Amino acid sequence: MSDKKASNQMWGGRFASGPAAIMEAINASISFDRKLYAQDIRGSIAHSEMLAQTGIISAADQEKIAHGLNTILTEIEAGTFEFSTRLEDIHMNVEARLAELIGPAAGRLHTARSRNDQVAVDLRLWVKDECFRVAEALKGLIAAFLERAEEHAATVMPGFTHMQAAQPVTFGHHCMAYVEMFSRDLSRVRDAIERMDESPLGAAALAGTSFPIDRHQTAKALGLREPMRNSLDSVSDRDFALEFLAIAAICATHLSRLAEEIIIWSTPQFGFVRLSDSFSTGSSIMPQKKNPDAAELVRGKTGRVTGHLVGLLIVMKGMPLTYGKDMQEDKESVFDAAETLDLMLAAMTGMVRDMTVNTAAMKRAAGAGYSTATDLADWLVRTLGLPFREAHHVTGRAVALAEEKKVRLDRLLLEDLQSIHPGITADVFSVLAVQNSVKSRTSFGGTAPSEVRKQVRYWKKRLAKA
Ligand code: ARG
């Protein structure tokens, strides 16, 4: 007795009742998989209908089962259902309550089924629903960007490489870069939906079943395209969850880059945008401050979403076929990533919609840093027929001179420019102004306002069909 107590003190800790309590605590998933209740009940109703239709159970029992399951759905939604940790997970909680409600007929529901295919179908249904939610949210964000892009198709700002002003671009063009990124996220979501649109239900524990089930029927009833073709694969892979997490992580990374830009743009030093009060906070000690907390949190939460992807990849990488309890660890990653991503998308859509764009500050910055140097070089090539390398050299000397005189390139005198290359004429000033620089970049996908408007029209049309 005293021995048992001693060892229990060593590894038992707060688990007063010994190994059984520890086992229950490590084993139970009900605290989080209760989120699957609707999918679990949908799956069970579809399964019971199929069992009745194939004559495996009676129509009378099926009716009782379906009625009981619907009662449970109502109880859970009303908050009156009592979840029990002792009953481990959502599947057993529902089944135990069904037995209380309808008696022995409840025992027939689990014919030709296992919790292994049950949990696989539940989670698939949940992830598929979430993918549709993410697709809608992405469409909202893309629409917000299209509005801003149209409004600012001709607003010049500095374009950066290495975070150094490189060439002037338009803010509309910058917005459209995000339209492209989030549209690819949207297409990834759609692809993933296609692939996960298969039903594992009926794989039973792992090997299929000797009962004459109809897996096509249950797949169809659950809105899934067809049954999965291998029972071992059905219960053992979670690549649909990984794919969702990968999409979430990529999308979060896009959101995080945008968040970082918004944070930089809203500093007083940049002053390119002002966030609306609803998406910023004040400081408790420094009255002058307006902090971009929502953007910072989007950036911060990206770590969490990516962590969930890495976490589940690592859970899965060592798993021999087929099911192992390790896989119970899939759900919290998926649920938290989903909830986090939904929130990030909503916050970012709000920020993009509401932020005030300071076009004057953008324009000022666009002209700084000799940002039209490439335009000068291009002009020398186009007008004077200089080889690009030589034009690059001449331009470098012009920049050095501007630096020496502490003026912008377009403020150099014609004589100054001619002292560097005598062929330069006053026409060069037409490309040295930032507005003209962006206007000239009419190549497909370029920053010219005319091209930006073209791309806005293209995406508006495409989004309407998406
Ligand atoms: N709660 C379990 C899970 O999430 C359900 C499947 C249990 N299967 C089993 N063979 N113990 O994975």
From TrEMBL:
Keywords annotated in UniProt: Amino-acid biosynthesis, Arginine biosynthesis, Cytoplasm, Lyase
GO MF entries: argininosuccinate lyase activity
EC number from the UniProt entry: 4.3.2.1
PROSITE patterns named among the record's database cross-references: FUMARATE_LYASES (PS00163)
Keyword Cytoplasm belongs to the record: yes
GO biological process: L-arginine biosynthetic process via ornithine
Residue span(s) of domain Fumarate lyase N-terminal: 15-307
InterPro entries recorded: Arg_succ_lyase_C, Argininosuccinate_lyase, Fumarase/histidase_N, Fumarate_lyase_CS, Fumarate_lyase_fam, Fumarate_lyase_N, L-Aspartase-like
CDD domains on file: Argininosuccinate_lyase
Any Pfam family hit: Lyase_1
Entry keyword Cytoplasm: yes
Subcellular location per the Swiss-Prot or TrEMBL entry: Cytoplasm
Location, primary (coarse class): cytoplasm
Reactions catalysed according to its record: 2-(N(omega)-L-arginino)succinate = fumarate + L-arginine
CC per GO annotation: cytosol
Coiled coil regions in record: none
Recorded metabolic or biological pathway in which this protein acts: Amino-acid biosynthesis; L-arginine biosynthesis; L-arginine from L-ornithine and carbamoyl phosphate: step 3/3
Domain annotation Argininosuccinate lyase C-terminal: ranges: 370-439
HAMAP family (alphabetical): Arg_succ_lyase
Family: Belongs to the lyase 1 family. Argininosuccinate lyase subfamily.
The protein's name in its UniProt record: Argininosuccinate lyase
Source organism per UniProt: Mesorhizobium metallidurans STM 2683
Source organism phylogeny: Bacteria, Pseudomonadati, Pseudomonadota, Alphaproteobacteria, Hyphomicrobiales
Protein's gene: argH
